[in-house]
Amino acid sequence: MKTINLRLRIYLAILVAVVIIGVIGLMAIEGFTPLDSVYFIIVTIATVGYGDISPITPAGKILVIFIILTGVGCFVGVVANAIEHVIDERERKERLRKLNMIIGVFFSEIGTPLIKRLTVHDPDIDQIRSALLVSNNWSEEDFATASTTISHHTARLDSRTIPLHEIHGFVAHHKSYMLTLLENPRLYENDRFTDLLHAVFHLAEELLARPHLTGLPETDYAHLSVDFNRVYMHLIVEWITYMQHLKTHYPYLFSLAMRTNPFDPHASPVVL
Tell me, what's the pLDDT at 4? Predict the structure, then answer.
């Protein structure tokens, strides 16, 4: 996509430069009016060539040769790259649509349940809870405000207060599924979600690598706390982004996700 955009911009820049040089040159050399100059340049570059206007002087003919050699090629390049850009953009949107389906399954299976397990151990949850109670009336500005609030939040989860055996069992049950996700090439369309998945998988590896999860030294609890906080912050950020996506594209999925909000202690899937 970036390569196509760069090529398109280069071709457009050259084409505009050729048109400007050609118009000024024809006005100066051939005495054409501005309108006739633009008209002649366009029909020449577009290979229409009506022949109703033509240069007379040798200098004018040399200028037209330059316009044909450079302008026609740039015009074809602009058209070809514009078509390629449209096709690539359509394919990109399709890839993102499929990626968002994967993200949705992740939150259904792992993300939302894990947030519920960790939120109760966040000593500062009340500072951000109100910013995470997504409603059906939320606008783009509300989601932006929530993202800003989260960006200023510092997670202080303490692994000593977290039921490590419960989290151990949860991540062990979903480890193979996370491996499958990591092998999906579509993930690399979204760097932030990839970072989240790596963080969750790393936490799973840390917990599964220990023969026991009780009576650990303080240094190890501190190490696990860092891993938990990394996962927790990634989860919150991506959850808000995912909720915004659902509200925009899948209102019926958003309705259920909103009613099962992991940050709302009174959340219920039952429609009241």
Answer: 62
